[in-house]
């Protein structure tokens, strides 16, 4: 008697189109909710935005010439990257209030952006801008599952 065995397996692949970057969104910016700070929304461009990348690379070269192998003081690095984010990445915000009684929303302006993002005491805001900008490059991969039949070798007959 001969019996055939079939194993059904699943193969996965990724749709190529799901790996495509949304360059318009990365350049024009998009709103991101900041999970660590409920109510805070930032409109940011991507860290892949070409003018930002060029300015960042120039900054890194400047740091390399100035500091060599020595570590860059954190407050200098935070201030410098904050300026880059203010110049190129952060486009708007919602959910930031001042300390007045009652609190009033802080209007987004280029000047306010530079003031807060270049102040080392606001490094949490700088980190939120960096995180939000990084999220714009995240793509939701679209997987394809296929059922595959594999036959086992025929069994021996007696």
Account of the protein in words:
By secondary structure, this protein is of the alpha+beta class. α3 (74-89) packs across α5 (123-135). The protein has helices at 23-28, 50-67, 74-89, 110-117, 123-135; strands at residues 6-14, 30-33, 41-44, 90-94, 143-151. The relative contact order is 0.27. The N and C termini lie close together (7 Å). It has one domain. It has five helices and five strands; from the N terminus they run βαββααβααβ. It is globular and about 65 Å long. The strands form two sheets. The protein has a three-stranded antiparallel beta sheet with strand order 2-3-4. Strands 1-5 form a two-stranded antiparallel ribbon.
Widest sheet: strand ordering: 2-3-4
Shape: globular
Tell me what portion of residues adopts beta-strand conformation: 15-25%
Secondary-structure element series:
EHEEHHEHHE
Secondary structural class: alpha+beta
- Gyration radius, rounded: 25 Å
What is the structure about, briefly put?
This protein has 158 residues and is α+β, with helices and mostly antiparallel strands.
């Amino acid at each position: 008697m001969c019996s055939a065995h079939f194993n059904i397996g699943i193969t996965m692949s990724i749709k190529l189109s799901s790996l495509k970057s949304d360059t318009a969104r990365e350049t024009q910016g998009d709103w991101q909710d900041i999970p660590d700070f409920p109510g805070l929304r930032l409109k940011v461009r991507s860290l892949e935005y070409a003018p930002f990348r060029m300015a960042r690379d120039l900054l890194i070269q400047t740091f390399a010439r100035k500091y060599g192998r020595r570590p860059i003081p954190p407050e200098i690095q935070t201030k410098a990257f904050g300026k880059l984010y203010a110049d190129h990445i952060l486009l708007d915000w919602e959910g930031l209030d001042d300390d007045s009684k009652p609190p009033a929303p802080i209007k987004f302006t280029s000047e306010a952006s530079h003031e807060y993002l270049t102040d080392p005491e606001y490094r949490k805001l700088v980190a939120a801008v960096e995180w939000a900008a990084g999220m714009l490059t995240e793509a939701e991969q679209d997987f394809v599952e296929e059922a595959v039949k594999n036959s086992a070798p025929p069994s021996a007959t007696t």
